Amino acid sequence: FGSSxxxxxxxxxxxxxxxNLWSAMAPKGxxxxxxxxxxxxxxxxxAGKKVKKAKKVAKAVKSSVSSKTKKVRTSVHFSKPKTLxxxxxxxxxxxxxxxxxxxxxxxxxxxxxxxxxxxxxxxEINTLVFLVDIKATKPKIKQAVKEMYDxxxxxxxxxxxxxxxxxxxxxxxxxxxxxxxxxxxxxI
Length: 188
Hints:
The protein is an alpha+beta fold. The protein has helices at residues 3-10, 21-24, 35-62, 105-108, 116-125, 138-149, 178-185; strands at 109-112, 127-132, 153-160, 166-172. The chain is rod-shaped and about 140 Å long.
């Protein structure tokens, strides 16, 4: 038997094998007279939903919507962001007393040199010879001699001896005599 032969035997057309099946079923719970009222309710409910949606969109349009934008990076190097750096405001001093400057006039000039060559310089070229601190500079030596002995220095020459101590040749101005100063100090 072919498929068309089966339908001929049953007595129905080929397109619908069960023509009266759907019309024979009863409607589920609702009567056939109410579809117009139901359709009207659906339309009003749908319109209400649309109105709500439109109001929501209008509210969103009025208020600013903050959307995150990606920062455009122009460099391949990442720099730490600049943040607020407050000035230091300590609660207590970290040191109880201020540190004193240790290289004072008494530390700069340690002792006068009393060798024969030093005595010759005192007598001939108006120059005093001192052993000074290794860290002392020429201006500091000049200032220390002025403060301690009340004399003006013309110039200062320094050298570091082979034993590691610094020696200073302090030449006085012509107003002062090195021999008098040496007597006052007690060298001679």
